[in-house]
Amino acid sequence: MKPDKVLSLAGLAARAGKIASGEFSTEKSVKQRQAYLVLVAGDASDNTKKHFSDLCGYRGIPYFEYADKERLGKSLGKEFRASLAVKDKNLADAIIKQIESEKQLNNGGNE
Predict the structure, then answer these.
(1) Is-contact 72 37, C-beta < 8 A?
(2) Residue ranges in the chain assigned as alpha helix (H)
(3) β-pairing, 83-86 with 63-65?
(4) 3-state DSSP call for residue 31?
(5) Residue 51: is it exposed, middle or buried by C-beta count within 10 angstroms (0-12/13-18/19+)?
(6) Backbone angles phi, psi at 85, to 5 degrees
(7) In contact, 96 and 62? CB cutoff 8 Å
(8) How far apart are CA 42 and CA 66, in angstroms?
(9) How far apart are CA 95 and CA 86, in angstroms?
(10) Given the DSSP bridges, would you call strands 19-21 and 83-86 parallel, antiparallel or unpaired?
(11) What is the pLDDT of residue 11?
């Protein structure tokens, strides 16, 4: 299996201490305007996805659904994580850029 660059960048951010993970910590980071990006696991509950989508939309914070709880947690050195907030602008920008380039590749470059 080829390495996932988005999850590698999330792991790098975690090792740098620039991640808030878990629903309560992620929400706190968003509300305190410390988050530059929020990732929510694709297999998180619909309620969790809607909550963070609305919360981030209201505050203008980029929000993406990515991977699953197990892979998201593993990338951070944890067990399972439904959500995480990236608290470093440069790392958040790098992750967003990678997600968008993967979307373009998966769509064959057509949006």
Answers:
(1) no
(2) 5-15, 23-31, 46-59, 69-75, 89-106
(3) unpaired
(4) helix
(5) middle
(6) -120, 135
(7) yes
(8) 6
(9) 9
(10) antiparallel
(11) 96
The CA-based dihedral angle spanning residues 62, 58, 89, 12, taken in that order and rounded to the nearest 10 degrees: -60
* Residue 24: strand, helix, or coil: helix
Measured CA to CA, the distance from residue 102 to residue 54 in angstroms comes to: 24
Dihedral, CA atoms, 111, 102, 92, 5, nearest 10 degrees? 180
Contact, 95 vs 63, CB < 8 A?
no
Q: pTM higher than 0.90, yes or no?
A: yes
10 Å Cβ neighbour count for 85? 27
Q: Per-residue confidence at 107, pLDDT binned at 50, 70, 90?
A: confident
Which residue in this structure is represented by tokens 């990006």? Answer: 37
* Entry field: residues in the chain: 111
